[in-house]
C-alpha cells in the first residue's frame, strides 16, 4: 500500500475514535520519517520532560483495551471496540512492526508506532488520564 493511502486509511479509521480513560482523547497521526527505535524512544521521552518511555506489547495493549470496551456493556463502547479491532488489523496487515509506548504519570502519553515496509515511522498518539 502506498504511504499516502496508508496514512489516509489510518486517519479514516481513527476519525472520531476516542481513547477512553479517565478522559476521552482523540488519536493524532504524525509522520516521523525514517527513525530508529532508539530515536523514537528519545522523541517520546522529550515530549514528557525526559520521563522514560516504556514499551508495552502491542497485541496485549489492543487486546486488553478491546476486551475492556466490550465488557463495559455500553453500546457505544462496544461499537468502538469493533473499530479498534479493525484499526489493529489494518496496522498489522500494512506494516512491518507495531510498537506501543507509554510515557508520563497521571497524564500518560500513549504512542502506537507503525513501521512501514519501507522503514518509515508513523505514530498514532493520544493521552490517557490515570489518577
Helix content class: 40-55%
How many E strands?
Answer: 7
What's the helix count?
4
Cα(first) to Cα(last) distance is 40 Å
Q: Summarize model confidence as the mean pLDDT.
A: 97
Overall shape: it is globular
Structure commentary:
42% of the residues lie in helices and 31% in strands. It is built from four helices and seven strands; from the N terminus they run H-E-E-E-H-E-H-H-E-E-E. Strand 5 and strand 6 form a beta hairpin.
Supply the key terms.
single chain; 131 residues; alpha+beta; five-stranded antiparallel beta sheet; two-stranded antiparallel sheet
Task: Kindly summarize this structure in a few lines.
The chain has 131 residues and is an alpha+beta fold.
Topology of this structure?
Elements lengths: L2 H12 L3 E3 L3 E3 L1 E6 L3 H10 L6 E4 L1 H14 L3 H19 L3 E7 L3 E9 L5 E9 L2
Antiparallel strand pairs: 1-2, 3-7, 4-5, 5-6, 6-7
Helix pairs in contact: 1-4, 3-4
Amino acid at each position: 500500500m502506498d504511504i499516502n493511502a496508508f496514512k489516509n486509511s489510518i486517519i479514516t479509521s481513527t476519525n472520531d475514535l476516542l481513547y477512553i480513560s479517565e478522559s476521552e482523547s482523540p488519536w493524532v497521526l504524525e509522520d516521523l520519517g525514517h527513525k530508529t527505535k532508539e530515536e523514537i524512544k528519545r522523541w517520546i521521552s522529550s515530549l514528557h520532560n525526559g520521563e522514560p518511555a516504556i514499551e508495552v506489547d502491542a497485541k496485549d495493549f489492543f487486546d486488553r483495551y478491546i476486551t475492556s470496551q466490550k465488557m463495559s456493556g455500553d453500546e457505544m463502547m462496544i461499537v468502538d471496540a469493533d473499530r479498534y479491532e479493525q484499526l489493529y488489523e489494518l496496522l498489522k496487515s500494512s506494516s512491518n512492526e507495531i510498537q506501543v509506548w507509554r510515557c508520563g504519570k497521571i497524564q500518560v502519553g500513549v504512542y502506537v508506532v507503525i513501521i512501514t515496509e519501507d522503514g518509515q515511522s508513523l505514530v498514532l498518539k493520544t493521552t490517557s488520564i490515570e489518577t
